[in-house]
Amino acid sequence: MSAIQERSDHQRHEGEEGSNLAKQLSDTITVTIGATVPTGFERTAAEEVNEKIGADARISKDRGRIYFEITTENLPLIHHLKSVDNLFVVVEEYTNYQFKDQKEEALEDFQSLASKLPWTNPLEVWRLNNSLKKKRWRRKGGNGGKARASGKDRVEAVTAETENLQLESGTPERGSGEPEGDPAFNGTQGELDKNTEEQEEGSVDPLLKFRVTCNRAGDKHTFTSNEAARDFGGAVQDFFLWKPDMTKFDVEVLLNIHNNEMVIGIALTEESLHRRNITHFGPTTLRSTLAYGMLRLCKPQVSDVIIDPMCGTGAIPLEGAIEWQHSFYLAGDNNDMAVSRTVNNINHIHKKRRDKGSTAWGLPINALQWDLCRLPLRTGSVDIIITDMPFGKRMGSRKKNWDLYPSCLREMARVCRAGTGKAVLLTQDKKCFAKAVSKMGGLWCKVVTVWVNIGGLHAGVYHLKRTGAPFGTTPEDVREPRGDNETAGGAKED
Ligand SMILES: C[S@@+](CC[C@H](N)C(=O)[O-])C[C@H]1O[C@@H](n2cnc3c(N)ncnc32)[C@H](O)[C@@H]1O
């Protein structure tokens, strides 16, 4: 067969496959989609769902989750959401499940549950979602290097991840030195595609591999998440005759238990979507999903000048430059390694776009090394300042923050446009931050504070508004001595 013929056969196949998929999507099923989101940003995520999908999202009692209904024709839209970490399709939801007081009885209930659940539509959505991912990521392939589990017995293959949701949402997003990876659908994608291809239309392959992941929060349960996952997983295996596999699974069944609430779902994402933009990670790289939430708080407008003066790996300005392209972003850090990571991350995205044949102009972002306490910027030249400050744990120290925070706020107030400028600042050093802001009452006023969970730490995202007072006219402008690092530049201008 000639190369041209091969190509045209391939194109025809792709076309047929595309129209098959379109047909399947339009054979409407309505399902509930669940999404895990950065805790504290549930409302922001619900707004985004409404804006992009037109659905009203429910915010779960169990923080960090939202739920919304969609029809299958809208299924592709869920992958446009930027504030969600993981997506799943809900199989069944119990708002007041009566877990038995005796452990054995409670576990027996898990065993009998599997065969009673309405699996058909959620599994159809899982299958459609795989076809979507396959189309989207066709050229990527690979299985993310995950090893095949050697143990075949069901107890080994059924896993429980966390005992407590607080712990789960505290996964090491700061400082985990995460591996380079594909932004959204890597992991076992190659294998997943293979299995999807092998499936008969409308049927579920009995040779599928699966695992159950249980997240449990609440102190009234007589069972552990491991036990729940094991017993429920055993029953799922018996019901579908799927093969348990802890590491190289096709289907991930989720068992989320929060006090008396229980949600059973099927995962639609293999790994959290928060890694999407970053390839060069630093010690405190922020989740892109959280960066998105922070950016949404300050509503970037066309031609706004937006700076992240402590950019680290550039997670915030990169997310901004991709999602709000009509603003201009400056990313700076006083650490040269941080600046070069940001530059590498920007270049990587440029390259990826070029490789895909994009002729679009580059991202509206620049990176440079600077000291936040003396920014090389004109007074009143910035519309939005958005940054993730050193918490004083992994980065900097609590002691240094007492000097750094007031200096930061003062210099930020200088460069920020009086009257209209905004700042969205993330820190866990709440006491120090509150003190610094209260000293700067003439320059900044608080709009709202969103409480978030960053790697298990309770932190605040402070949305501040620059007062109308011109810089240099309030007592707050006067710089206090900072010892060796005293930076007088930019303290009083004009
Ligand atoms: C919490 S990290 C920011 C992490 C970043 N959001 C990311 O996603 O990688 C804080 C950053 O502030 C920087 N920093 C500390 N003091 C600074 C100063 N005076 N001027 C500029 N950057 C500073 C540190 O080098 C560090 O990269």
Automatic annotation (TrEMBL):
It comes from the Eukaryota. GO terms for biological process: tRNA methylation. Residues 159-268 form the THUMP domain. GO terms for molecular function: RNA binding; tRNA (guanine) methyltransferase activity. SUPFAM superfamilies: S-adenosyl-L-methionine-dependent methyltransferases (SSF53335), THUMP domain-like (SSF143437). Residues 1-23, 136-205, 472-494 are annotated as: Disordered. Coiled coil: none annotated. Residues 1-16, 476-494 have a biased composition (Basic and acidic residues). This is THUMP domain-containing protein. It comes from Aldrovandia affinis.
